[in-house]
Amino acid sequence: MANSYQQRVLRRQLSAADYLGSRGADGIDALRRLVAETEASDGEALVALPRNWQCAIPLKGACMNGHVRTLAYLVDACRADVDLVDEETGDTAAHVAVSWGRLDAVAWLLVPVGARHDVRDRAGLTLAGAARRRLELLDRGDIDAERLRARGMDIDALRDEGAQLAKLLGAVERAGGWSAFAAKFPQRPRVRRAAPWLGAASDRAALAVCFANAVRAKDVVKVVEVKTTAAQQRKRANALSKRIAAAEYAAATAAKASIRADDPPLEVALLNAGLTSSAPGEHNLVDPVFPRALRWLNATTVDDVRSLEREEVSQVDGPSSADRRKLWLFCVAQREALETAVTEATKTAVAEVRELEAVKRAASRPVDPRAAIAFRVPEACFVRIARFLYHAPRPPPTPPPLDAEILGLLEGFVRRPPPPG
């Protein structure tokens, strides 16, 4: 009885962890608190959770939604076991990620110390086979398209992603495994994200070759730059225009908010503008004709004054033509002060964007990798860069095996058999 209750508690704990993993960034804090628990209950008494129970947390939820950061936390910090297989479906975490078309999650699970590409599900399909079958179903329309569209999914985007997934896993299968595939293509974006240490190793090798060439080339300096095409120039210009427009809008909004926050009360602004009374002894008071005229125009703040038009001011009854002119000049002065502040702010913002673009372009001039590059590199510089590259991330450590106690309490899951040989 106690053992049955402990099973229920563990299943409840693992189910909660799987759900929080499916929420990605929204559930990571609650997930951290949950995995720190050593006791739990299922509505009755608290019982101790098995040691290292976190290793049995399912990765299904995180794989279904493609939350790679959550997967990294579960595997690296919680040491969740990627070898667990659902006995009913034969699916591993990688199979779940494939069935949902989560490209980055699949690539991350296939890092050298992670999932195997050749494990088969109940239908006898490897990861590549499962990806090809999913793509066939999408192409034939056997998947309920209306249901997917109702959930906000783009069928064409799913097909494109499915094609990429099938292509990636097919290449891994032909290469004989992820390690062999990634070693050939360490600079591919998906490989660099999933196994950054391979890209760093490739960088170190390239740096060593450059250094050797530099030593042999002596004083020869030859850098071959790739010419930018007209299409690339248009694309860069459009991107720069968008950044400038966004910076102008943000700067103008901030400047307007700042000016309006600093606006004095209307009476003080009138007094500062010199619209004082002409009566003897009242030179430090605002001439009442101006506040009355503004009240008649429904202007109670300085910002209201900025929106007044000349025709509105000229139609006010009571003030003389000279007073109406003074009032209109006051309105113009308030409007010009705001426009000047906005203009200066937008000029500064545009200058900063252009300066950043110039620095970015100077730092990333494209170099033709096919050209023979021979240049002199100071040895101290080479050593410094090489040491920096050697600090690249390393693969996560191999997780400890699940304790027999946890395996005994789990229902419906087995560990994936070790690779042959």
If you had to describe this structure to a student in words, what would you say it looks like?
- It holds the Pfam family Ank_4.
- InterPro entries: Ankyrin_rpt, Ankyrin_rpt-contain_sf.
- Keywords: ANK repeat.
- Helix content is 60%, strand content 2%.
- With 421 residues, it is mainly α.
- The strands form 2 sheets. Strands 1-2 form a two-stranded antiparallel sheet. It has a two-stranded antiparallel ribbon with strand order 3-4.
- The protein is elongated, with a radius of gyration of 34 Å.
- It starts with a helix and ends in a 6-residue tail after the last strand.
- Mean pLDDT is 78; it is low at 218-225 and 367-377.
Number of domains: 3
Which regions are unreliable across 5 or more consecutive residues at pLDDT < 50? 218-225, 367-377
Rg, please? 34 Å
Return the string of H and E elements: HHEEHHEHHHHHHHHHHHHHHHHE
Instruction: Quickly name the level 1 CATH class of the largest domain.
Output: Mainly Alpha
Helix % is 55-70%
CATH topology of the largest domain: Serine Threonine Protein Phosphatase 5, Tetratricopeptide repeat
| Overall body shape | elongated
Count of β-strands: 4
Q: Would you tell me the structural class of the helices and strands?
A: mainly alpha
What strand order characterises the main sheet? 1-2
CATH architecture of the largest domain: Alpha Horseshoe
The biggest beta sheet is recorded as: 2 strands, antiparallel
